[in-house]
């Protein structure tokens, strides 16, 4: 699915989030903090936005962007040609890195897409160095507040229609809606980070509570 939408992925993101998506990625990067000359991994890097922002913001850091979709990686390489980011194909369920390798690990919109989020978080914990930071950006099921009917309507109808018009793939964006509604609440996800072994776990929500950024330390 991600291979199929790679070419239209960025445009769809900008339209669907009313141009807000880069703001959340910048928050992720600021939340990581400057790793100085350390090594950071952006898992599920997709077309590379978080990895590129890390490189731009912390020029001394060594940044690796990794994803299992080769088409997404191809887009990332094309968009950020000449940038000091390395790209690698890998599966988040079984990371091909030694334990205690990275000073920081980021990922945007990964956990909602995997069968076993705890397994992935445990892998991320393994490859982080002690004291290293994880920062995760994902969609969050909307809370039942005043905005709920509007948000529900947008997720149920707006996003799949935009997906059909912009990415010519209604099913992929109907999947986005379904996987968001079925995903952990922000509080439950924070608990999962703790279960995986992370300390000082916290989160912040954006966009009427539909986007969450979680972080923690090994
Ligand atoms: C919605 S995109 C997010 C891309 C990017 N992080 C961003 O901020 O836009 C989700 C990405 O996760 C990748 N992905 C999903 N499951 C994965 C897995 N098990 N291992 C590695 N990458 C995975 C997909 O290929 C896709 O590029």
Question: Could you write a compact summary of the structure shown?
Answer:
The protein has nine helices and seven strands, in the order H-H-H-E-H-E-H-E-E-H-E-H-H-H-E-E. By secondary structure, it is an alpha/beta fold. Strand 2, helix 5 and strand 3 form a beta-alpha-beta unit.
Fold and architecture overview:
This protein is α/β, with parallel strands linked by helices and 218 residues long. The protein has one domain (2-139, 184-217): Rossmann fold (3-Layer(aba) Sandwich). 44% of the residues lie in helices and 23% in strands. The protein has 9 helices and 7 strands, in the order αααβαβαββαβαααββ. The chain has helices spanning 2-5, 9-16, 21-32, 49-57, 70-79, 117-127, 148-167, 170-181, 186-195; strands at residues 39-43, 62-67, 85-89, 102-108, 128-139, 199-206, 211-217. The chain has a 7-stranded mixed β-sheet, sandwiched between helices. A hairpin with a 4-residue loop joins strand 6 and strand 7 (211-217). Helix 2 (9-16) runs antiparallel to helix 7 (148-167). The protein is globular and about 45 Å long. Bound molecules: S-adenosylmethionine (SAM). S-adenosylmethionine binds at residues 2, 25, 44-46, 49-50, 67-69, 72, 91-93, 108-110, 113-114. S-adenosylmethionine binds next to helix 4.
């Amino acid at each position: 699915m991600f291979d199929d939408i790679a070419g239209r992925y960025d445009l769809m993101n900008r339209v669907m989030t009313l141009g807000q998506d880069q703001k959340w990625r910048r928050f992720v990067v600021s939340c990581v903090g400057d790793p100085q000359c350390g090594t950071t991994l952006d898992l599920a890097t997709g077309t590379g936005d978080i990895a590129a922002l890390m490189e731009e913001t912390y020029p001394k850091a060594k940044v690796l962007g990794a994803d299992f979709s080769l088409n997404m990686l191809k887009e990332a390489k094309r968009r950020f040609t000449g940038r000091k980011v390395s790209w690698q194909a890998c599966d988040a369920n079984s990371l091909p890195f030694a334990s205690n390798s990275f000073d920081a690990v980021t990922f945007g919109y990964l956990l909602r897409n995997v069968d076993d989020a705890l397994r992935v978080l445990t892998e991320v914990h393994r490859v982080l160095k002690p004291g290293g930071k994880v920062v995760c950006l994902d969609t969050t099921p909307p809370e039942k507040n005043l905005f709920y009917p509007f948000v529900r309507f947008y997720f149920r109808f707006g996003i799949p229609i935009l997906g059909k018009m912009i990415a010519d793939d209604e099913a992929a964006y109907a999947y986005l809606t379904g996987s968001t509604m079925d995903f952990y609440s922000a509080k439950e996800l924070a608990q999962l980070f703790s279960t995986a072994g992370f300390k000082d776990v916290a989160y912040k929500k954006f966009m009427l509570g539909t986007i969450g950024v979680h972080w923690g330390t090994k």
